[in-house]
What we know:
By secondary structure, the protein is an alpha+beta fold. The chain is 27% helix and 28% strand.
Amino acid sequence: MLTRLLKADLARGAVVAATLTALIALAATLMSAGTSLIVDSLSATSRLSTQAKLPDLVQMHTGTVDSETINQWAATRSDIADHEVIKTLPVPRQELTINGRNQSESYSEPAFVTSPKRLDLLLDDQGNPVDPRPGEVVLPIHYRAIEAADVGDTVTVTAGGRTTTLKVVGFARDAQMNAAMITSKRLVVSLRTSPPWSSRSASPSTSSSSPWPAPPAPEPSSAAIRKRACPATASTSAPR
């Protein structure tokens, strides 16, 4: 009986039935594609976080940082698996030019760093930590995404009447600061790159682990901490 009624309905409204069938199939396809996109995005984010060894906690500082005191403190904490002090050197936007475009009107807050060694790694397209040579710079992948720079372009920093030119050799995936909505951007240079402000007379001295040895302003640092996964601390770990 039901079969005969269904056949009768289809015969009377074949066009309507075909349209409804097509719309249902389209809705199912879109839902499947959307679900697949969400799963792929979450998986990619998880893989990047794992490869980059994201810390559970990042504490920002400005000025002189006593690394030895931090090391001693971390050694007394059983819930800390590893830590690393990463020094950064902010550069005023008006002193930075990327691919011939001065960054004075950019909303980004660029800072030079050397490549982290253990935590919060900056990775290339193959998932390896970036390691530029003297005179080279690795830009955040954000600059490639907005077509602001490409491999082979130049980055110049002008300060104190001196200009330093760096060659773009690649782009780094920054698991912490990849998103365009995050204004802080880390530009990776070699420890041996000569700074444009080295000739300034009243610059504070810094340790040899700084990207450039004589910054024009107090040197910010971040202490990256990875906690051990144990019942006492797992619930208190800072969100990534």
